[in-house]
TrEMBL record:
Pfam families: BATS, Radical_SAM. PROSITE patterns: RADICAL_SAM. Residues 40-264 form the Radical SAM core domain. Its EC number is 2.8.1.6. This is Biotin synthase. Keywords: 2Fe-2S, 4Fe-4S, Biotin biosynthesis, Iron, Iron-sulfur, Metal-binding, S-adenosyl-L-methionine, Transferase. Belongs to the radical SAM superfamily. Biotin synthase family.
Length: 346
């Protein structure tokens, strides 16, 4: 019998899942996964940074924060034509969803107007659209929905009690408020977090508890592994044990059975065996950044080979659902290194 979708997880229940023997946890997660998903299908999403760097926020993991010296060159919002050109390339590479990220604390109304124009144009190509622009108010979310936006990404990053150690320029409640505006506007949500930032296992449980107890489970749940970037405060943090990362995927799968659990930032640093364990534990989505739009990227070649070795296949397109098909893996397109793990890079 399929597991019921729950929104009332207690911290003790989540902690008990994390504490299960590894094989027991993976067995349970994989069983839940099979009840809701094709265990051999993996969704592929793409991302373009449409406005890079210069962000006033202080997220301790993020190279796009203006206050850290990370070598990221700030770039203004791209023009509609420039984005459209990249979106066409993504479509030609087989993508059916196009995600656009902008490093803002929260966009001004005039920024939203410009992004709405971009969304309309990308939508006109027949692509699904996703955006991550920072905090939104209700009116802005509605404007984007009216322009044809399908998904909005806004990560919770970590547990409520650890949030203040990572970000000081906004509150956890700000994130929850934006998610509410997004849901109320009728947009689908993409929302997850980052592990390996020095949090405890119980704080990892706290992130998943908060995500699963939202009024609706996010359609996509990106679980990022911190990519340590020199110049950011989290550079030098002790790395997470890979098995603890796999545990996080497994617990996410059990708690949010119908969501797409996405391996996102940090995947390129993972070895193949850990990725394979993640797919078994319930990850069924991977993320490419804008390098997908360039050709001959060795990371994509590597992923194609890994898919073959594991007999995985790209997920088929389903109308009005949270899928992206990925002939991408059968093309010469390149893959992503974008992945500061930031909220602007789901
Ligand atoms: S994660 Fe997003 S909000 Fe935080 S500094 Fe980076 S771009 Fe800005």
């Amino acid at each position: 019998m399929a597991q019921p979708i729950r929104h009332d997880w207690t911290r003790a229940e989540v902690a008990a899942l994390f504490a299960l023997p590894f094989n027991e946890l993976l067995h349970r997660a994989h069983s839940v996964h099979r009840e809701h998903h094709d265990p051999n299908a993996v969704q592929v999403s793409t991302l373009l940074s449409i406005k890079t760097g210069g962000c006033p926020e202080d997220c301790a993991y993020c190279p796009q924060a203006a206050r850290y010296d990370t070598g990221v060159q700030a770039q203004k919002l791209m023009s509609v034509d420039a984005v459209l050109e990249r979106a066409k390339a993504a479509k030609n590479a087989g993508a059916s969803r196009f995600c656009m990220g902008a490093a803002w604390r929260s966009p001004k109304d005039r920024d939203v107007e410009k992004v709405a124009e971009i969304v309309r144009a990308v939508k006109g190509l027949g692509l699904e659209t996703c955006a991550t622009l920072g905090m939104l108010n209700g009116e802005q979310a509605t404007k984007l929905k009216q322009a044809g936006l399908d998904y909005y990404n806004h990560n919770l990053d970590t547990a409520p009690e650890f949030y203040g150690e990572i970000i000081h320029t906004r509150q956890y409640q700000d994130r929850l408020d934006t998610l509410e505006h997004v849901r109320e506007a009728g947009l689908k949500t993409c929302c997850g977090g980052i592990v390996g930032m020095g949090e405890t296992r119980d704080q990892r449980a706290g992130l998943l508890q908060t995500l699963a107890n939202l009024p609706e489970h996010p359609e996509s749940v990106p679980i990022n592994q911190l990519v340590q970037v020199e110049g950011t405060p989290l550079s030098g943090t002790e790395a997470i044990d890979p098995f603890d990362f796999v545990r996080t995927i497994a617990v996410a799968r059990i708690m949010m059975p119908a969501s797409m659990v996405r391996l996102s930032a940090g995947r390129q640093q993972m070895d193949d065996a850990v990725q394979a364990l993640c797919f078994f534990a319930g990850a069924n989505s991977i993320f490419y950044g804008e390098k997908l739009l360039t050709t001959g990227n060795p990371d994509v070649e590597h992923d194609r080979a890994l898919f073959k070795r594991l007999n995985l296949h790209p997920m088929e397109v389903v109308e009005e659902a949270n899928t992206v098909h990925a002939d991408i893996l059968e093309t010469d397109a390149g893959s992503c290194g974008h992945g500061c793990g930031c909220s602007a890079a789901a």
